[in-house]
Design brief:
This protein is an all-alpha fold. It has 5 helices and 2 strands, in the order ααααββα.
Length: 138
């Protein structure tokens, strides 16, 4: 799992934010966690009455990212540069990376590298205060 702890990935594979206990965002997160375990997906994703749609989406997006980070962290040792030389979805589909900013033309890369690029890109989006403000009510 050295991939998780390389200099580039150490930024990527950490939970985005610790939502302060007692904050409004914390209450939204607790509501989401409670409804997700109910088995009723429609109820789990429904905007709670009186809540701001953008805050609800932001809290759930960050939580989803954190969950994916943890899940991926458990399988990184099984998908290495050698064992997963291409990011693919079976023999018919291959993924090439481009973010439109740093890498404009899609490049072929290993699955771990692709995931590193992807998670870094998502982390950068979540860190962008214009997209995901950290101040409540903004």
């Amino acid at each position: 799992m050295s991939f998780l702890f390389s200099s580039r990935s150490s930024k990527t594979f950490k939970p985005k934010k610790n939502i302060p206990e007692g904050s409004h965002q914390y209450e939204l997160l607790k509501h989401a966690e409670a409804t997700l375990g109910s088995g009723n997906l429609r109820q789990a994703v429904m905007l709670p009455e009186g809540e701001d749609l953008n805050e609800w989406i932001a809290v759930n997006t960050v939580d989803f990212f954190n969950q994916i980070n943890m899940l991926y962290g458990t399988i990184t040792e099984f998908c290495t540069e050698a064992s997963c030389p291409v990011m693919s979805a079976g023999p018919r589909y291959e993924y090439h990376w481009a973010d439109g900013t740093n890498i404009k033309k899609p490049i072929k890369c290993s699955a771990p590298k692709y995931i590193d690029y992807l998670m870094t890109w998502v982390q950068d989006q979540l860190d962008d205060e214009t997209l995901f403000p950290s101040k409540i009510g903004v």
